[in-house]
UniProtKB/TrEMBL annotation:
The keyword RNA-binding does not apply. The active site is located at the dimer interface. Pathway: Cofactor biosynthesis; pyridoxine 5'-phosphate biosynthesis; pyridoxine 5'-phosphate from D-erythrose 4-phosphate: step 4/5. It is found in: Cytoplasm. Pfam families: PdxA. Catalyzes the NAD(P)-dependent oxidation of 4-(phosphooxy)-L-threonine (HTP) into 2-amino-3-oxo-4-(phosphooxy)butyric acid which spontaneously decarboxylates to form 3-amino-2-oxopropyl phosphate (AHAP). Keywords: Cobalt, Cytoplasm, Magnesium, Metal-binding, NAD, NADP, Oxidoreductase, Pyridoxine biosynthesis, Zinc. It catalyses: 4-(phosphooxy)-L-threonine + NAD(+) = 3-amino-2-oxopropyl phosphate + CO2 + NADH. The keyword NAD applies. Belongs to the PdxA family. The gene is pdxA. This is 4-hydroxythreonine-4-phosphate dehydrogenase. GO terms for biological process: pyridoxal phosphate biosynthetic process; pyridoxine biosynthetic process.
Length: 321
């Protein structure tokens, strides 16, 4: 897929606007979609009308999307919530029409969108799946600067912990495994992916003495998928599957719930972690962090995860070009 990467503005009161500028010069050509009033003062920029219009060297190409209000760092304005949502839809429309190579999204604040515009999705992942035609997707977070790599997929995502055991059905886990397996081949160029599946309970249930989900749902599923030829380890005790020698034995880990997956990667590679949505008909990456209201506008935002997300989007797009 050719053309620029589209970088959506995310929450204007977060660190997104400054990251859009700090990433300039990272070697990836991208166009930012948002309201130019939200960019840091003095940002070298050129407004464009189509994603691949030329701009002077060192300028941020801006696809202008007017919001209801200006923005104050650290203080989301409910009036801007609909603009944040619409920018994501705008980017999806462009990439689905083949006018851009991929999307990289800057962070949104889910609470601000819910309160300001009754946003009904828990995050980008679910909203993008909806915009793409309600396709099944999974969220992967992939390290870019640790070895062996840490790639994790939470099978359940943004739900209360109390709801996880019921939500972690055999069907859901199977879908996460199949989507991850296909994406490791297509997007990561790993021809024979090795997947590891975490147990839900301590010690992966320890033979049913610490929980029955492994014996009743996970083990029968893994046996069936192995018989199809998928290379699957598990269910593994989650506490011992993320240190380096353990990670060397698999290419991606399917985890039971959000924090089981995200704590290891954000601990190992917060600056280099990339969130990538697998299963979409287009490429979407994102930094692994959120809106960071506590430091927005202070000059302390680290752009490394955004740069890693842009680079990963570019690499994936080039693989399918
Ligand atoms: N893809 C997305 O749109 C994501 C959005 N979020 C949203 O962000 C909001 C805030 O979430 P939190 O849990 O507070 O996580 P957060 O990632 O925004 O902040 C956690 C801590 O990390 C620091 N931090 C984050 N990114 C940083 C960066 N680039 N440079 C330096 N320090 C950085 C923050 O200052 C804060 O102390 C929530 O609404 C959450 O839903 C969270 C993760 C991803
Ligand atoms: N904790 C990860 C996260 O919130 C990312 O969500 P999404 O907006 O990429 O779906």
């Amino acid at each position: 897929m050719t053309g620029r990467i589209l970088l959506t503005c995310g929450e204007p009161a977060g660190i997104g606007p400054e990251l859009a500028v700090l990433a300039l010069g990272c070697g990836v050509d991208y166009a930012w979609i948002g309201d130019p009033r939200h960019l840091p003062a003095g940002t070298p920029r050129t407004e464009i009308t189509a994603p691949n219009d030329p701009v002077p060297h060192g300028h941020l190409p801006v696809l202008r999307h007017d919001f209801a209000a200006s923005s104050t760092a650290g203080h989301p304005d409910p009036a801007n919530a609909q603009g944040v949502i619409d920018v994501i839809a705008h980017a999806v429309d462009l990439v689905m029409r083949g006018e851009a190579a991929a999307i990289t999204t800057l962070p949104i604040n889910k609470q601000a969108l819910k309160e300001g515009a009754s946003f009904r999705f828990p995050g980008h992942t679910e909203y993008l799946a909806h915009l793409a035609g309600d396709v099944p997707v999974v969220m992967m977070l992939a390290s870019t600067s640790v070895s062996p790599p840490c790639r994790v997929v939470p099978a359940t995502i943004h739900i209360p912990l109390a709801d996880v055991p019921a939500a972690l059905t055999s069907d859901l886990l199977e879908q996460a495994i199949r989507i991850t397996h296909a994406a490791m081949i297509r997007d990561f160029g790993i021809n024979a992916p090795r997947l590891a599946v975490a147990g839900l309970n301590p010690h992966a249930g320890e033979g049913g003495t610490m929980g029955r989900e492994e014996a009743e749902r996970i083990i029968p599923l893994l046996e069936r998928l192995r018989s199809e030829g998928i290379d699957l380890a598990g269910p593994l005790p989650a506490d011992t599957m993320f240190h380096a020698p353990a990670r060397a034995r698999y290419d991606a880990a399917i985890c039971a719930y959000h924090d089981q997956a995200l704590i290891p990667i954000k601990t190992l590679d917060f600056a280099g972690g990339v969130n990538v949505t697998l299963g979409l008909p287009f490429i979407r990456t994102s930094p692994d962090h959120g809106t960071a209201f506590d430091i927005a506008g202070t000059g302390r935002a680290d752009p490394d995860s955004t740069i890693a997300a842009l680079r990963m989007a570019r690499e994936m797009a080039d693989k399918t070009a």
